[in-house]
Amino acid sequence: MNLSEAELRIIARIRKGQRAWRWGRWPVLITSFACTVTFAYALFQLYDRFQKGRDDMLSIANLACYSGVYFGICMMSWCMTVWTLCRWNGDHMTKLLLRLLEEHENPNS
Q1: How far is CA 73 from the centre of its chain?
Q2: pLDDT tens for residues 56-102?
Q3: What are phi and psi for residue 88, nearest 5 degrees?
């Protein structure tokens, strides 16, 4: 099987991405977990402030404006945490593809 120059560049880019994920998964995991905790805390503080009987207009406006945003960011960061944990060892299909290409290029090894 002869690969074109563009296909070889794509394969090199995929290999580089797989190597970078070994080091990149930690910052992604820490950042997404920190965002989840921070925005969950902010969301609970917002609801706690509203539940304590402070029915002034500022509390109601803050609850109306920011609760959806806080909840959305919290859910997105939680999904990123789960995605990172699910792909902790990299994408299995990509690893299989690269392994098959290496075995095809070097049949004796």
Answers
A1: 12
A2: 777 777 777 877 888 888 889 889 999 999 988 888 888 888 888 88
A3: -60, -40
d(CA 80, CA 57): 35
Q: Confirm if 17 and 25 have CB atoms less than 8 A apart.
A: no
Using CA atoms, how far apart are residues 9 and 17, in angstroms rounded to an integer?
Answer: 12
**Packing angle of the helix pair 57-86, 5-51 (nearest 10 deg):** 140
Q: Which residue has the tokens 């959305």?
A: 72
Reported residue count of the chain is 109
Q: Residue 47: in which H helix or E strand, if any?
A: helix 5-51
Q: What is the DSSP letter of 56?
A: S
The pair of three-digit structure tokens given for residue 80, joined into one six-digit string: 């990123």
**What is the secondary structure of 48-97 as a DSSP string?**
HHHHTT--SHHHHHHHHHHHHHHHHHHHHHHHHHHHHHHTTT--HHHHHH
User: Which pTM was predicted?
Assistant: 0.68
